[in-house]
Predict the structure.
Amino acid sequence: MKFRAKINDVGCLNHFTRVVNTITKLTKTCVVRLTVDNIFFVLSGKVANGGVSMWCELLQVNFFDEYQLEGVSEDANEICLEVNPENLSRALKTAQNAKSVKIKLTKKHYPCLTLAAELPSLSSISRVVTHDIPVDVIPRRLWHDFKEPSMPDFDVSIYLPPLKTMKSVVDRMKNLSNYLVVEANLSGEMNLKIETDLVSVTTHFKDLGNPPWGASQSQSQSRDVEAMAHARVDIRKLQQFLMGQQVNPTKSMCNIVDKRIIHLILLQEDVSLQYFIPAVA
Amino acid sequence: MPLSTQPQSGNDEYVLVASLDNVRNLSNILKAISFKDHAIFNATQNGLKVTVEESKCLQANAFIQAEIFQEFTLKEDVVGFQVNLTVLLDCLTIFGGSTVPGVSTALRMCYNGYGYPLTLFLEEGGVVTVCKINTQEPEEPLDFDFCSTNVTNKVILQSDSLKEAFSELDMTSEILQLTMSPSHPYFRLSTFGNSGNAHYDYPKDSDMMELFQCTKTQTNRYKMSLLKPSTKALALSCKVSVRTDTRGFLSLQYLVRNDDGQICFVEYYCSPDEEVDEE
């Protein structure tokens, strides 16, 4: 097993830092899956984290100037590591103005991701800050937990309103209730609703548009365009997703499987983030 | 009047309709009195009066005159109800209360009468939020019987000067002692805290003093915990009038200028903590 990678470009470094910071806001621990072409940050839906799962995908060539990977074996040329993303984001913080950042998998007393940042210096002697971030190497027999989640057979898919507007609405609703109902239809309308003993609040978004998914999603083809699909979710999970956003997505959308799950997708040219929040009764 | 028992949501059903182009003109002034959940609303042809009380010793009133609203329609002489102020403020600021010029949230507030919820329609950038806040039986607000003929001392100050004083007050002191007098020290705030006593004096000819009408030396103590909520109003205001009456009751009236330059008033009444021995 071998992994080493290097970033020379400040823009790429900042971009990578933003992605890691976003992941940090969403989860305490996650799995980093390294393959020849991609880096994935994965959280699989366990009961302990409220059934939320996440899938973030980066194309390595868009971030790294050097990238070498030798997986566990030739037929499984990849590495799976469990990390605390906060450690990674703290390490990257000190590397903000670095001339270059090297990341490699090392074995000290325990396996580590070693991040070495070469900082600018006035003299000829270079300044290097090194962070050893402890990781757990995940054995191959457990990898099946970290496969890309299949796109659920959703009832409605809709583009999200500006995330900033959505965030302020969800923030206020969180003060009032623990659960929120997301509902949307195929005419570009989405509602966020809460209801408690004291108050009921509904925010109506319209003209959002529905993404064209092609004929594969046959279920939504025959659907009444006015009919709402809805899911009641833990409002904190949705707030977490909206709070963490440091990537400026070019496209953001939401798929709803009626009474089952909401699937949020953010797309930027070289990063995609998917977030799944299960519905509660 | 339609005979149907199910009231329609048409305009004629409402006993109160009030609209604002900028919701901040209401939400800001309500923030000045939001120290307790229960707020008593009282609407008359003059406008809206919102009252919040604490421990029967403190009362805060916010007045929003009918002219502040773009529409203010009242079907009855007086309409009263009680709602949870914290919930109302969360609803009014649902779009984040943007301070960006040109971006504002419009509000239409409707009330159907006794037993009905208070309905808010908020709109910003084409997004509409509808809130239905349950109302409660309005309680009778306390009458502090603070009458201008019984006022012994009165000063009007620029709020900035009092803000400075309040931010420097020793909060370990349980009480704030207020001395107003036609002679020295004129206007004095005193605290008695863990690290000693402090006095904050304003000369009567200070630039900050707009009006000074003290007829009799009066020293009264007020609970710091009761006065603390009033700093919210102070922060928003540009002028404040401080008055005490013969019984030592304190009246603080704040003049608040809203985004559109209109003027609203917030007033706090506070009862004195104890009698001070005259020496």
